[in-house]
Amino acid sequence: MFNSLEASPALLKLAVATFLAAALLGGPAALAAPFDEGMWTFDNPPLERLERDHGFIAGQDWFDHVRQSSVRFNDGGSGSFISPEGLVLTNHHVGFGAIQKLSSEGKDYVKNGYYAATKDAELKCQDMELNVLVSIEDVTKTIAGAVASHAPPKEANDQRKAAIARLEKEETEKTGLRCNVITLYQGGEYALYRFKKYTDVRLVFAPEEQIAFFGGDPDNFNFPRHDLDMAIFRVYEDGKPASTPHYLRWSVEGPKVNDLVFVSGHPGSTERLKTIAQLEYQRDVAYPFQLKSFERRLGVLKAFSAKSEESARRAKSQLRSIENTVKARRGEFQGLSDERLMERKADEEKKLRDYVGAHPDLSKEAGGAWDDVARARVKAKSIFVRSSFSTFRGSRLLAIAGSIVRLTAELEKKNEDRLEEYGDAKLDSLKLSLFSPAPIYGDLEETTLTDAFAEALEALGAGDPYVKATLDGKTPAAAAKAAVAGTKLFDAKARKELVDGGRKAVEASDDPMILLARRIDPISRELRKTTEDEIESVETVAGDRIAKARFQAYGRTVYPDATFTLRLAYGTVKGYTTAAGYEVPPFTTFHGLFERSGAFGNSGPFAIPARWTERKQAIRHETPFNFACTCDIIGGNSGSPAVNAKGELVGLIFDGNIESLVARFIYDDVVGRAVCVDSAAMLEAMRGIYQAEALVQEILGAADPR
Amino acid sequence: MFNSLEASPALLKLAVATFLAAALLGGPAALAAPFDEGMWTFDNPPLERLERDHGFIAGQDWFDHVRQSSVRFNDGGSGSFISPEGLVLTNHHVGFGAIQKLSSEGKDYVKNGYYAATKDAELKCQDMELNVLVSIEDVTKTIAGAVASHAPPKEANDQRKAAIARLEKEETEKTGLRCNVITLYQGGEYALYRFKKYTDVRLVFAPEEQIAFFGGDPDNFNFPRHDLDMAIFRVYEDGKPASTPHYLRWSVEGPKVNDLVFVSGHPGSTERLKTIAQLEYQRDVAYPFQLKSFERRLGVLKAFSAKSEESARRAKSQLRSIENTVKARRGEFQGLSDERLMERKADEEKKLRDYVGAHPDLSKEAGGAWDDVARARVKAKSIFVRSSFSTFRGSRLLAIAGSIVRLTAELEKKNEDRLEEYGDAKLDSLKLSLFSPAPIYGDLEETTLTDAFAEALEALGAGDPYVKATLDGKTPAAAAKAAVAGTKLFDAKARKELVDGGRKAVEASDDPMILLARRIDPISRELRKTTEDEIESVETVAGDRIAKARFQAYGRTVYPDATFTLRLAYGTVKGYTTAAGYEVPPFTTFHGLFERSGAFGNSGPFAIPARWTERKQAIRHETPFNFACTCDIIGGNSGSPAVNAKGELVGLIFDGNIESLVARFIYDDVVGRAVCVDSAAMLEAMRGIYQAEALVQEILGAADPR
Questions:
Q1: Most C-beta atoms within 10 A of its C-beta, which of A272, B125, B411, B627?
Q2: What stretches of A608-659 adopt beta strand conformation (E)?
C-alpha cells in the first residue's frame, strides 16, 4: 500500500521527499553503503550495487534462471536442481529426516550412507514436499484496495486477511500451483508467489552422517570446517524423473578466493527492524539471564550423565539440544555485545528517526513509536524475572500436566476465545505430542525439576507466589520428589483419560503433578496477560509504524525481513581474522580433515568413516573442501546453492560461523561468514570415495541449461 | 633474611603463625590449589603437588639431571643437551642471530637452512655464550648478615650490593665458574647460582626460516601451529666436542594427550605480585591508550607503505615490530579484561591482606602498602596522558637528537648523579646506537613525526607546554617538515661532532631537530622527576613490603617471580576451547601444514620451502607436529625442552598462544597454552625432509645418560 502513488496525495509528496532526503541525510545510500548485505527478493535484486561493487551485470534471464533452479524443502531448508532430469542437491542435515525414515534395521543409511547407482535403486521418501518459485506478482494494490479507508485496526486486519485468502484460493484454482500471498516489509508490500510442487522425491545419494557432520557439536557453528554435508534427491512426476530444464551447471573447480558468489535460498526469519531499546534489552536483560540459566541446566545434566552410562543415555538428547541452543544464543549475545555492531544499529536508527522527524506526515504516523517501544521494554524489564519463571518449566511431566490443565479448560471456550496454542487447528499435533508413548525417566525428571525449583527460589525468594506454588512448603528436592514419585502421567493412557474426562476430571484429580500444574496455572496466566496487553500489543503496533516509516523512507532500496521465501544474497569468498588475531583462511582442504581427525585420535565426533580411511589415497588431499563467504544468510538457507557470476554451482551452504549468528539482528561482514561445501570437494568425494561414477556423469554430462 | 629464624624473635613467631594461618585461612594451599602453576626453582620443586595432582614421584637425581641437561642462551633463550657429545637443541628463532651472522652472500643459511653431515662442517658462531647451572646455594644468611640492623634503606641497599659483589667475586675466583647471586622473592631469598660457561658453539643443523616460522606474523602467538622452530648447535671445549654427560634422551614417539610434561628453561620476567590497583590501572588506563596509539601508528605506516614498493621496504621493520607489539599487548589486555582472571587475582590479594590484617607484626610492616600503591596509581592516572607524550617520540631523528641533548648535559655530572641510562657502564652501547650508519629515511621520518605531533595535539590541546614545544606555532605537518628538512642528523658524523663538542656545541647548534629536542627536554625531565619521586619510589617500597609479607605468609610454598634463571614448570598436553566455542586440539600434524599452506595458496608467510613440496611423500603426514600444554612459561623460555616423567625430551617450547600472554600478570590454564614442536616431528623432518641421518643416529644412538 505504501509504494502505491495513487493511494494518497500525501504519499506522493513523500515519495519525492524520500529522494531528497536520501540525498540530504544520506538515507538509502548510507544504509546500503559498504556491505554485501541483504536477502533480496528476486523481483528486486540490487542491480546497482552489484554493478558498482562487483562489476556484475546480468539480464533478467540470469535471475529467472537461478530462481527456477532453486528449490524449497518445505520442512525448512533449501536446495537446487543440478540436472535436467530432476536431481536436487541439498544438505545431509536437510535430508536427514527423510534418510532416517528410509532406514530400517540392518539398513542404516544415516550411519552408512546410500548411493543408487541406477534410477531403479532410488528410494522414494515418505513425506517430502519441494517447491519451486514459478512467478512473483505484486498484489499490493489488490490487498490494499480491499481494506476500507479509515477502518479501525482490527477490522482492517480482517478485511486484509479475507482478501489474501480469497486471492490465494482463486489463484490456486486457476493455476493448479501452490499460491501464497507473502507479506513483505511488515505490510509495505504484498506479493503473490506461485510455486510448483513436487511430492514424489527419491533419495539418490547420501554420505555417512559421520562425514556429513564431521566435528559434531564442537565444530557446529565454526570454521575452519571439514564437512561433506550433502545429499542428492531426485524429483519425479507421474512415476518418471521430472523434467527440470532450469538447473545449475556444476563447477568442477569451485570458486577462488575473492570470487563473487550468490546464495539463492530460503532464509527463515530475521528481526533486523528491532529498535535499539529492544536490542539493548536482549543484550542486558534477556540473554545474560538465559545463558546463565542454560548453563546451569547444562551443569545439572552433565552431573546427571556422569553417574552411569545409562544416565548419560537418558540425558543425551536434552543435553545435546541445550548445548546447541547455548552455542547459538552465545553467538547472538556476542554479536549484541559488539560495540561496533551496536553503533551501526544506533546509527541506522538515528538516521531513520531524523528523517521521520524532518517530515511532519511521517512524524505524526511514526514519531512516537520508538519511545512506545522503549516504554514497553521498561515494563518488560520490570516483570522479566517473574515472567522467566512463570511457566510449567523444569520437566517433561510438568509440561504435560500443564498442557492437560490448560487444554481441558480452554476446550470449554469457543475456538476464537482460546489461548492461541489451543485453537482447533493445533489440537491434532498437540495431542500427538501429549499422548506420545516415548519413555520418560523419573530420575532425570526429578533432577531437572529440583533444579528448576531451586533456580526459581534463588531468583525470586521464598515469598514469591510462583515459588510458593511450586514448593508448597517443601524444599526444592522434596517438592520435586513428591510430584514425580506420585504422578501417574508417565503413562500415556492416564494422560488420555484426564483429557477425555475434561475439566471436571482434572479438577477432581489428586495426581500431585496435576495439582502442581493447577497451582502454577493462574500465576502464569496473569503474567501472560500482562505481557500480551501491556508489552507485545504495544510493540506490534509501534513496530508496524516504524516498518512503514522505513519503507516510505527507503522503499525497495532495502530488503525485507526474511520470510522463508526465496531470496538472493551475495558476497565474496573470504577468510577473516578472529578476535584472538588468528587468520582463518577462506578454504579448507582434505588435508585438514585428516589433520583434525588425527589430532583428536580419530574418535568421537572427529572419527571419519572407515571408507574414508580405506580410500584415503583415492582423493587429492589438496582439493578445497569447505569455504567461507560473506553472503547474508540465516537458518532456512541450509542447502542453498552458492552460485558464481556465470550461474554455476560452486558450493553448498550448510552453516554460518558463530560470529554470523548475530545476523538475526544485523548483518556483519567483518567476522561473520556463511560456510559452504566446495563443489570440487563434492565431486572429488563422489568419485574417489564413493565411486558414484554414474551420478557424476549425469551431473557433469548435462548440457548447459541456458 | 626472612626465612632465617635467627634473624629476629618476632620472625620466629611469624614462622609459626604462618603455619597456623595456612590452616585457618586457607593460605598457601588455597593459592596453589587447582592449577599446574609456577616457575619453580630447582632447589624447591613442588614435590607434594606433583605427587598429589599427577602421581609423579622422583628423587633429587631426576631434578639434578634435568637441571644439568638444561642450557641458557645468554642473549635470551633456553636449550638442552641432547647427546653426550655436546649437541644442544634450541629454537630456530633463538639461534637466528647466530645463523644470520654465519650467512654471507651466496650462503643464506637463514633462507636455505644448514646441515653439517660431519663434525668438520659444523660452523663456529661468532659470539655465543651458553650457561649450564651447576649448583645452587642458599646465601640468604650471608647477604642478610652483611646488612646492619636498623640501617636506613639506602645504606642497607648499599651494604647488600657490596656483599653480593664480594661473594660473586670470591666464588668466581674460587671455582672458575660464572657465579651470580640471584635475588628471589623480591629479596625474601638470595641464592648463589654457579654456571659452567661454553663460548665455542657451532651450528650443526637449521631448517629454512620459512618452515621454522611458518605462518609468520599471522600465526605468531597462535595455535594450531605448524612450525619446525628448531636448530641444533654443538658446544666445544679445547677445540673438541665437549663431553656433556647430562643430556636428555630423545623420545621417538613424542607425548600423548594428557601426559605430564615438564619445561626446564629460563623465563625472563613476570609481574605476578602487582596489586589489583596496578592491574586495573593497566587495564583501564595504560593498555587502552597504548593500543589505540599503536593502532594509529600502524595505520600511518600502512598508508605510507601503500605508496610504493620502496616505501613499503622503508617502513617494513618498523611496521613488523609494531604489529608484533600490538599483538602481544592485545593478548595481555584481553587477559586483564577477563573478569574470571581478575577475580582470581582479587581473591589472592584479599587472602593475603586478610592474613596480614590478622597479624599485628605483619600489619605494621605491610598493612598500608596496598593503599600506598593505590594512591600512587591515582597520581599516575592524573599525569598519564601528559607522561605519554613527554618524550622524544615519533621519529628516529628526534630520538637521536634527544639522546645527544641529554648525553652532553649528563656527562657534565658525576657518574652516580646522572640519569640511569647515561651511566658510564652504558655509554658504549649508547654510542654504538647513536653513531650507527644505518640509513634513515626523511619521508618516513616526516610522516611518523607529523602523526606523533598531531596525536599529542589531539590529546593535550594547543595550550599544553609539550604541544607548544613540539609545534612551535606551526601545524603538525609544518613542524615535522621543518625539523626533518633542516636537520643534519641524518649523517652519523654530524651526531658525533655534536657529542664530541659537548653541551656547549649542542647549545650553540641551530639544527632544528636539536632545537626541538631542547624545547622538549625540560618538560620531559620534570614529568620524569614527578613519576620517579611520587609514584615509582612509593611503589617500589610498597611492593617490597608486600613481597616480604607474602614470603612470610607463604614462604617457599609459592614460587618467585621470573628472573631469567633456570626454572621448572609442569603441566599436561591439552587442547582448549576458544571464546567462540571452537575446540582446539592438543596436537597438529603434518596434514595440517599442507592444509594451511594450501588454504592460503602456498604464498606469503604460508609458503613452504621447495624441499618440503618435493619430499612431501617422504614423511608420514599423520605424525604429530606441534602440541599445546598447560606449562607456565613466558618469554625467555623459548627453546626450553619439554620433558616427560621419564626425563625424555618430548618437545621444544617455541611460543605461547595469545591467551597465555597474560602470564606476565597471572597464570591461566583454561585457554592459555605453551606451544611446542613435537619430538616425533623433529625426527620425521630431519629424516624424511633433510636426510640428516648421521645427526639422527647420534641423537638416537646415544646410550641412556642415567
A1: B627
A2: 624-629, 641-644, 649-656
- Distance, in Å, from the CA atom of A399 to the CA atom of A203, rounded to the nearest integer, reads 37
Q: Which among A258, A595, A671 is the top mutation candidate for probing chain B, defined by the most B β-carbons within 10 Å of its own β-carbon?
A: A595
How many domains are contained in chain B?
3
CB contact under 8 A, A591 and B588: no
- For residues A347-381, one letter each, b for 16 or more C-beta atoms within 10 angstroms of the residue's C-beta and e for the rest, the string is ebbebbbebbeebebbeebbbebbebbbbbbeebe
CB contact under 8 A, A598 and B222: no
Question: Given an 8 Å threshold on Cβ–Cβ distance, is A594 in contact with B621?
Answer: yes
A-proximal residues of B, 629-688, CB under 8 Å: 657-659
Handedness of CA A603, A605, A608, A610 (dihedral sign): positive
Asked whether the beta carbons of residue B598 and residue A578 sit closer than 8 angstroms, the reply is: no
Q: Are residues B391 and B416 in the same domain?
A: yes
For residue A197, give the H/E element and its range.
strand A189-198
* Confidence (pTM): 0.79
Q: Is A466 part of a structural domain of the chain?
A: yes
**Minimal Cβ distance to A589: which of B327, B331, B598:** B598
Same domain? For A542 and A580 the reply is: no
Same domain, yes or no, for A599 and A482? no
Assess if residue A150 is contained within a domain.
Answer: no
Q: Are residues B544 and B567 in the same domain?
A: no
Which cell numbers hold the place of A392?
Answer: 510449567
Q: What is the pLDDT of residues B297-320, one digit of tens each?
A: 999 999 999 999 889 888 887 887
Together in a domain, A551 and A577: no
Q: Which residue has the cell 621470573?
A: B562
A145 touches chain B (CB under 8 A): no
Contact B601 A257 (CB under 8 A): yes
ipTM exceeding cut-off 0.95 for this assembly: no
Give me the domain span that covers residue B413.
375-555
Note whether residue A568 is domain-resident. yes
Percentage of residues of chain A with pLDDT beyond 70? 94
Decide if A338 touches B, using CB distance below 8 A.
no
Q: Which of A342, A343, A341, A363 is nearest to A352 (CA)?
A: A363
Shortest alpha-carbon distance between residue B625 and chain A (Å) = 10
Alpha carbon of B599: minimum distance to chain A alpha carbons (Å): 5
**Contact criterion met (CB < 8 Å) for A592 and B588:** no
Kindly state whether residue A159 falls inside one of the protein's structural domains.
no
Task: Write down which residue in A507, A537, A558 finishes a domain.
Answer: A558
- Residue B497 has φ and ψ, to the nearest 5°, of -60, -45
